[in-house]
């Protein structure tokens, strides 16, 4: 696909470059049918489609989209846990086979439990609900990042699961392309958008920004914005402000 030309740059970090002008990448998080109009739709979800569409059309050097891509019977589904209700909670643990594959100590698995919200079945591999919502299409992106693909592991972040057992190729892609500024939009702001941005800032390699107008959340409390801001993530309120920052 066509890109804006990356600027002349100098080496800043192995695989990372920075010059007079930044190398901008966009991450569109989980703009899928089930999260916008389907089984796990965020409040006011459809209203975010047009802002995200406008943002995708801005002159980023690279564009990526993440998708939940769950097998049937995924650990995050309430239907997988007999007697548990949708939006109830349970404790999940890292699968032993994945812990072994990482060369980690399996004797500590019982100490690594995490609270898990139990969701309706959503974004099941190969279903309509897992597709990107119209008018967003996969051919607009340089790569699609699939997450939550293992039946026993939840994965909100587009980079990795909370135990670091399953890592996507997003970090590698951003480093290979010398990205200096990563802009994040999508759903849900208090889950996958927040966790993706929080992981992104931890690399301390690129600036991370979240565009508020291009995000919708499950909760209306808005705590995620203070959490992200406190972590050093830049918050851009509107698409108009983003255009100014990008020099459009």
TrEMBL record:
Domain Isochorismatase-like, first and last residues per copy: 115-227
The EC number(s) this enzyme carries: 3.5.1.19
Annotated signal peptide: none
Pathway(s) the chain acts in: Cofactor biosynthesis; nicotinate biosynthesis; nicotinate from nicotinamide: step 1/1
Gene Ontology biological process terms, A to Z: pyridine nucleotide biosynthetic process
A Pfam short name: Isochorismatase
GO molecular function: metal ion binding; nicotinamidase activity
Class of enzymatic activity (EC top level): hydrolase
UniProt KW keywords: Hydrolase, Metal-binding, Pyridine nucleotide biosynthesis
UniProt-listed InterPro entries: Isochorismatase-like_dom, Isochorismatase-like_sf, Isochorismatase_Nicotinamidase
Family classification: Belongs to the isochorismatase family.
Record protein name field: nicotinamidase
Species of provenance: Paxillus involutus ATCC 200175
């Amino acid at each position: 696909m066509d890109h804006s030309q990356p600027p002349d740059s100098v080496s800043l970090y192995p695989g990372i470059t920075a010059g007079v002008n930044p190398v901008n990448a966009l991450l569109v998080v989980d703009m899928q049918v089930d999260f916008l109009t389907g089984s796990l739709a965020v409040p006011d979800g459809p209203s975010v489609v047009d802002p995200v569409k406008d943002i995708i059309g801005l002159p980023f050097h690279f564009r990526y989209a993440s998708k939940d891509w769950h097998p049937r019977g995924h650990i995050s589904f309430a239907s997988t846990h007999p007697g548990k209700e949708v939006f109830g909670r349970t404790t999940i643990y890292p699968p032993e086979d994945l812990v072994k594959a990482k060369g980690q100590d399996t004797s500590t698995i019982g100490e690594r439990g995490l609270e898990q919200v139990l969701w309706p079945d959503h974004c099941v591999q190969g279903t309509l609900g897992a597709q990107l919502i119209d008018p967003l299409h996969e051919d607009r992106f340089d790569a699609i990042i699939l997450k939550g693909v293992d039946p026993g592991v939840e994965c909100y972040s587009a980079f990795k699961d909370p135990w670091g057992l399953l890592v996507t190729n997003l970090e590698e892609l951003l480093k290979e392309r010398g990205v200096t500024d990563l802009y994040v939009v999508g759903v849900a702001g208090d889950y996958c958008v927040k966790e993706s941005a929080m992981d992104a800032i931890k690399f301390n390699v690129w600036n991370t920004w979240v565009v508020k107008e291009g995000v919708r959340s499950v909760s209306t409390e808005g705590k995620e914005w203070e959490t992200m801001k406190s972590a050093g993530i830049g918050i851009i309120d509107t698409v108009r402000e983003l255009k100014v920052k990008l020099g459009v």
